[in-house]
Amino acid sequence: MSRLVKAQLVKYSKLAHERGLTAAFGGNLSILFRGRIFIKATGAVMDDLSPSQVGVMDLNGKQISSIRPSSEWRLHYHVYHIREDVRAIAHLHPPYSIAASTLLEGALPIITPEAEIYLKKIPIVPFKPAGTEELALEVANALRDYDAAIMKNHGIVTLGKSLREAFYKAELVEESARLWYLSINAKKH
After folding, report:
1. Interval 82-102: pLDDT, tens
2. pTM, to two decimals
3. Which of 19, 21, 37, 40 is CA-nearest to residue 29?
4. Is 72 a catalytic residue?
């Protein structure tokens, strides 16, 4: 079964890169399966991810594979502990979402009916250094009641009962950010 979990991580990592939701070393995906967190390895490139570049941790945050998990493992760990309904997390670096985070405070405006239905609100988390416990706790707290958040100057985090669901919510966040950005620029002309 762990082979199928790793295959899902590889599939959606490559898809995230293909769709412009992340670049280079940025971003990571995880799946919670049978009490273990499967997550992209630190330093692995999403577009080139292979099953051998997936780390495994237990629910106490202990690395149980020889592959070192992403530097953002704390974020995944804390979200899984706060949201028992979540089975997958997408942390990506989409450009419009990051741009919106530099211009907005509080939350990204909800524009489409789909975003209203599936996301309800997209809070913007204040800047905290990447990979830190401080960032992980801030993001987990923002996601107590929502399935998406934007980290100021950093990227997005989306949640789902499956990696497919988390991935498509990430696309929806980026679409919302792009539409917001286009609408404010259209008003300027």
Report:
1. 999 999 999 999 999 999 999
2. 0.96
3. 40
4. yes
